[in-house]
Design brief:
Length: 264
């Protein structure tokens, strides 16, 4: 078993180069503060050199950089890196913003930790996981990070809207870690969730955050479909948020383990 599910194919990962996706990325919920502390706990003693695979616009990178000796923040999307470099703290001396795909990247030394935050599913697993295994120092792990939102009153309506309007018609729910383990590409060593952390944002920003997701790039939706999705989701949320503010709680799931070369 080597092929990835079709709904995670390269044509869908490519949309993270779209300018509309990059613009919408800043509306995503923040990583809880406990995420970085959890990642720090996976580091060996002493100065640490960390690789972040698919850093995007730097949501996690900017929290990590001051806490490690060196951070290589890697992403194949130049528009995403432009956005990252323009953010406060992006010039921190510990971080290098590197425009490269993990499938072709050539590091100049080994890493104490590799991190993939909501990015690994778009990569070519059978290529990337064995390469990451060769880049890590003995005993170092790969940490897979995912943001999670507590249930919201309009989730059922949201699910129907996503099914109706997403351009990725073949999308289905999946468990990334299970998919990797089934292919002999990863062995989980542990997992932990951060404590829930409340946040608030205007309804308009919450709705816009969906246009940073797979299947909702404005460049790939029709203007009519995007407007219909925005209006329907805004209406669904408004019934529960009369002050036009979404109040939610987010946490992060961190799963760490050993990247492998794949099933024989």
């Amino acid at each position: 078993m080597t092929d990835k599910p079709e709904h995670l194919g390269p044509e869908w990962g490519e949309q993270f180069r779209d300018r509309s996706v990059v613009r919408a990325y800043g509306a995503r919920p923040p990583y809880p503060r406990g995420t970085v502390e959890l990642l720090e706990s996976l580091l060996p003693p002493g100065p640490a050199r960390v690789l972040e695979l698919g850093c995007g616009s730097g949501d996690l990178s900017l929290q990590l950089a001051p806490r490690v000796a060196a951070l290589d923040a890697l992403d194949p999307s130049e528009p995403m890196l432009e956005a990252a470099r323009a953010r406060a703290g992006a010039s921190h001396p510990n971080v290098r913003w590197l425009a490269a795909a993990a499938e072709s990247f050539q590091p100049d030394s080994a890493y104490s930790l590799a991190v993939a935050a909501e990015s690994l599913h778009w990569m070519e697993w059978s290529v990337v996981l064995p390469r990451v295994a060769s880049w890590l120092r003995p005993g170092a792990v790969l940490a897979i990070v995912t943001r999670e939102l507590a249930p919201l009153p309009w989730d059922a309506e949201l699910g129907k809207l996503i099914a109706t309007h997403s351009t990725n018609r073949g999308f289905r729910a999946y468990d990334l870690v299970a998919e990797l383990e089934r292919r002999g590409l990863f062995r989980e060593k542990g997992r932990r969730r951060t404590e829930p952390e409340p946040f608030a944002q205007p309804v308009a920003d919450y709705v816009e955050s969906f246009h940073s997701r797979n299947g909702f790039s404005r460049e790939r939706m029709s203007a009519r479909a995007a407007a219909e999705f925005d209006a329907a989701l805004s209406a669904a949320v408004a019934r529960h948020a009369p002050d036009a503010v979404v109040r939610a709680a987010g946490r992060a799931l961190v799963v760490w383990g050993t990247p492998l070369s794949g099933a024989a």
